[in-house]
Design brief:
By secondary structure, the chain is of the alpha/beta class. It is 48% helix and 7% strand. One of its GO terms (molecular function) is nucleic acid binding.
Length: 417
């Protein structure tokens, strides 16, 4: 209530300063105040937006609409044109009354003189609003049905409709451009819509200042291709500063060797980063359980280096461990984007082989890197990454084989003590 009073006070002062008649201002404020008290709280509008909407409506009703056909009838305008033709009224008075420009007036006058009986100022649309091509509507419903089948499948990691994916699919597959609100509208009409539960607010920020300062590395185990019948692992590395995906590969089994191959691919192409950021998976870290009466511990946490970490030690790259799932949020979000679209595409393309799925994955992470504007950085990952490289703001070091190693095979390998 205090906010409404303060707002009305500011509106009153603004109108009086604009030399609006005091009586008109008083009536206007009273009308706005009544409507504010009666207006229902809208979930889609903030209180400020609701006030602006009410004030705008009152101004329109007080001063009249800018559209001629909403302020005057056909007969009223005809009467003015007749008087003007007989030189009974001057042009300036008509322009002030109708609130139109000279050009608009003479266009209407010409139209009136051509057909006085059939003259009308009513606006007629040449196209029907809110109608889309039947083929487009058919394709939207078809894709929404497929989405529903995916959501209902228990083993598939899909829980919600992805309308943005359908929008992209319609353009790529059918060459049909449709707005996102239109797709959501058709989903609501045909019962392909439900609200997502509200998630806890999460602060998204870039904690690094340079490419190569931190590379996040992780794997995800899901049924990426529903028709394949078996789950695969998605191994991914991402640069924290630019959000550029450096590596993305599907494998049938998660092994130390597969993660060493991921290191080899990233380091040979981009160089040595300052640090890697991983979870406490046994491939990345030796973690000893708590002491017990029945067990003697001969090795404590981090006293043994797994094979994967030995490779990073040989390359003089630091390893940082995430102590909670929330700490790995930045790599989880790209996972969700790629995983979501990978599953949907593999399902629609009837993919059963991991090599075919890898081709789809390659196209997805190219799109993510080169075309998608990241929600946190506000930039395309590749452009952000390359700009920093050109400005020589990078912590990636040139890859060099250091003694006692003679080739890359000596570094990226499984070692035996």
């Amino acid at each position: 209530e205090n906010d409404i009073k303060n707002c009305l006070h500011e509106i009153r002062i603004a109108l009086l300063e604009a030399d609006v008649n005091y009586k008109v201002v008083k009536e206007f404020i009273n009308s706005v105040n009544d409507k504010m008290q009666q207006e229902k709280i809208s979930e889609s509008l903030t209180p400020t937006q609701q006030i602006i909407k009410i004030v705008n409506g009152e101004i329109t009703s007080t001063l009249g609409s800018k559209q001629l056909h909403k302020n005057f009838t056909d007969n009223q305008v005809k009467s003015l044109f007749e008087k003007y033709s007989k030189k009974e009224i001057k042009l300036n008075y008509i322009l002030q009354m109708l609130k139109i420009k000279r050009r608009r007036f003479f266009l209407l006058l010409t139209k009136y003189r051509k057909d006085p009986d059939g003259f009308s100022i009513q606006y007629e649309r040449s196209t029907i609003n809110r109608k889309i091509d039947p083929d487009i509507e058919k394709h939207i419903i078809k894709e929404l049905k497929i989405e529903k089948n995916l959501i209902e499948a228990k083993d598939v990691p899909i829980r919600y409709y992805n309308y943005s994916y359908i929008k992209d699919l319609l353009e790529q597959k059918y060459c049909q451009r449709v707005s996102l609100p239109t797709i959501i509208d058709r989903a609501k009409r045909n019962n392909f819509y439900f609200l997502r539960p509200k998630r806890k607010a999460h602060d998204r920020e870039v904690i690094t200042n340079y490419p190569g300062e931190l590379v996040q590395h992780d794997s995800s185990h899901h049924l990426f291709a529903p028709y394949a019948g078996s789950k695969w692992y998605l191994i991914t590395s991402i640069d924290d500063y630019s959000r550029l995906i450096l590596y993305a590969v599907l494998v049938e089994r998660e092994t130390t060797w597969e993660h060493i191959l991921a290191l080899e691919a990233v380091l040979l192409k981009f160089g040595f980063p300052l640090a890697y950021y991983v979870d406490s998976h046994s491939i990345f870290r030796f973690v000893q359980g708590r002491d017990s009466f029945w067990r003697n511990h001969y090795r404590l946490t981090d006293e043994v280096n797994p094979q994967w970490k030995q490779v990073l030690d040989d390359c003089r790259i630091k390893v940082t461990y995430a102590l909670s799932p929330q700490a790995k949020g930045k790599i989880e979000r790209p996972y969700r984007w790629i995983q979501d679209r990978l599953v949907r595409t593999c399902y629609r393309e009837n993919i059963r082989d991991i090599k075919e799925a890898q081709l789809i994955l390659n196209s997805l992470f190219r799109k993510y890197n080169y075309r998608i504007v990241h929600s946190t950085t506000g930039e395309i990952p590749y452009i952000r990454f390359q700009r920093a490289i050109r400005e020589k703001r990078t912590l990636f070091r040139e890859f060099r084989i250091m003694p006692p190693f003679l080739s890359t095979k000596d570094i990226f390998c499984l070692k035996v003590d």
